[in-house]
Amino acid sequence: IWDVSDVKIESPYLDGSKSLNAATSGEWGMGISIAGSSNVTITSPTTIDCWGDGIYIANSYVADGVTSKSVTINNHLADGCRRQGVTIISGDTITFNNPIWQNIAGTAPQAGLDIEPNDNSAVFRAIRIVNPKTLDCGGPGIQVDLGSLAGPVAKTVDIHISNHIDNSQ
Q1: CA 101, CA 79: separation in Å to the nearest integer?
Q2: pTM for the predicted model, two decimal places
Q3: Cβ atoms of residues 91 and 68 within 8 Å
Q4: Does 109 sit behind a cis peptide bond, omega within 30 degrees of 0 on the bond before it?
């Protein structure tokens, strides 16, 4: 879902079939990739066995300074993905309601949710994670690593995670 607006998807089921992947390294192969898009609603997505992340949210790959905005994901199930259940690289008004991210393992950081900017161009405004469950992840249930956000432009970060249940490492 790259550089588009007003997208609604209901009940997508994406099986990355990572066991069939001939690669021996790398971390790409996302179930759903959202970049530079706005007004996106995805209801009840299932992303299983992805080589990379179940869902990946970032800035546009084509237009500088275009941030994914107003993205709502309801009832996401990520199961058996190799890198993350979800990665948020940058976003404005991103909401996940009632996600379950489980059995994430294969390449670091192996988190249910990883919030990690690539550089100082990232935005983390109104990020809301509501009632997440992270189960049996090889790494942290939720990881927030803002180290790469440092740079010449001052940033305000607004991330709120509520009612998290975790049994990960």
Answers
A1: 6
A2: 0.95
A3: yes
A4: yes
